[in-house]
Write a structure and sequence with these properties.
This protein is of the alpha/beta class. It has helices at about 20-30, 40-50, 70-80, 105-135, 155-175, 195-205, 210-220, 230-240; strands at about 10-15, 35-40, 60-65, 90, 135-140, 180-185, 250-255.
């Protein structure tokens, strides 16, 4: 099976921590040159320094906010203008404000749409021409199992991520003929700082303990445990590889079997 990403360049968004950082590590291990994008430069430096360079990979980072697609457009346009290309795009953005849908302000909803959908669209417009020229491209959107099964209390996330999933399916149909695949990977309950925050909020809202929330959550997962970041990253890395060239336009849950749909 060909998993080799040597001489491929990947742009991983939201890569200063959590799932984004885990994906960056996995892609680097497969030989890719990895460019990170996130707001926290200190964390970006630390992740960059920890990436594998045993095959001569060259890594870098961009300091940018996913909520500012115009700034990201400037950074990536400048990068591409130097004769470089991006073969793999991993769209990943921190979860929007939690809460019931009808308690959501228009401002928070717009922030969610901008950070998740408009930034992904902007990046795709920038990198797809190079992918077409190289007859190889991988676009991965890290979303949520909420795409298949909405999660109570995450109104904006449920709404926006489902929109990105349909955007991705449309794009997959449009550019699949050029050797480019577009897929969504849907993390379930995976050990991250974001999950710790959500468990804490749920416990506070319900007047119970975090341990009780965790126990209840695990009881809904057939695998009987929370996911590891490395397990999720491995699924993303496979879809980025040459071996996955005929997998296009799918939503892949990595959730221990929690989602009830097929």
């Amino acid at each position: 099976m060909n998993l080799d990403l040597t001489n491929k360049t990947a742009l991983v968004c939201g890569a200063s921590q959590g799932l984004g950082a885990a994906v960056a590590h996995e892609l680097a291990m497969l030989g890719a040159n990895v460019w990170l994008l996130a707001r926290n430069e200190e964390n970006l430096k630390a992740v960059k320094q920890s990436l594998d360079i045993s095959l001569g990979q060259q890594h870098g980072y961009f300091v940018a906010d996913s909520g500012d697609p115009e700034h990201i457009k400037q950074l990536i346009t400048d990068f591409l203008s130097k004769g470089k290309s991006i073969d793999i795009l991993v769209n990943n953005t921190g979860g929007p404000a939690a809460g019931p849908l009808l308690n959501t302000s228009l401002e928070d909803m717009q922030k969610g749409v901008t950070a998740h959908l408009l930034t992904a669209h902007t990046l795709a417009q920038l990198v797809v021409p190079g992918m077409k020229a190289n007859k190889f491209g991988r676009i991965i959107n890290i979303l949520s199992t909420a795409v298949k099964q909405p999660i109570n209390g995450l109104g904006i996330s449920n709404t926006v991520r489902a929109g990105v999933a349909n955007w991705a399916k449309t794009l997959a149909n449009e550019i699949g003929q050029y050797g480019i695949t577009v897929n969504n990977v849907l993390p379930g309950y995976t050990k991250t700082d974001r999950l710790d925050y959500l468990f804490g909020k749920q416990a506070s809202d319900a007047g119970t303990t975090v341990d009780a929330i965790v126990e209840k959550t695990i009881s809904m997962i057939p695998a009987g445990r929370l996911g590891e970041q490395e397990e999720f990253a491995a699924a993303v890395a496979f879809l980025c590889s040459p071996a996955a060239g005929y997998i296009n336009g799918i939503n892949l849950p990595v959730d221990g079997g929690r989602v009830g749909s097929l």
